[in-house]
Specification:
Layout lengths: L1 H22 L5 H21 L5 H24 L5 H20 L1
GO molecular function: transmembrane transporter activity
Protein name: Guanidinium exporter
Family: Belongs to the drug/metabolite transporter (DMT) superfamily. Small multidrug resistance (SMR) (TC 2.A.7.1) family. Gdx/SugE subfamily.
């Protein structure tokens, strides 16, 4: 169950990272409130997952999910480049996340 909670926390991290773009430096009230709520929920779920999972593993997986999700959504939503090298690096992060899951 901790891995599922950690996965959801990572998805929420992606949400708040993308949300930061829409807050315009926290000058837009609705995106700012939603982003702050998503931040809080992500950290709370991370802390719940870390009751069971090793701290280093949990934190690395959480940030990895957030990094991959944010990079992919940046490509889709903000027309960021999807070069082969960039996609390969994202793939390496996914491999690292999977590796930590299998050895933990």
């Amino acid at each position: 169950m901790a891995w599922i909670i950690l996965f959801v926390a990572g998805l929420l991290e992606t949400g708040w990272a993308i949300g930061l773009k829409y807050t315009a430096g926290f000058t837009k009230p609705l995106p700012s409130v939603l982003t702050l709520a998503t931040m809080a929920a992500s950290v709370v779920l991370l802390s719940i997952a870390l009751r069971t999972l090793p701290g280093g593993t949990g934190y690395a997986v959480w940030t990895g999910i957030g990094a991959v999700g944010t990079a992919l959504l940046g490509i889709v939503l903000f027309d960021e480049p999807a070069t082969a090298a960039r996609l390969a690096c994202i793939g390496l992060i996914v491999a690292g996340i999977a590796g930590l899951k299998f050895v933990s």
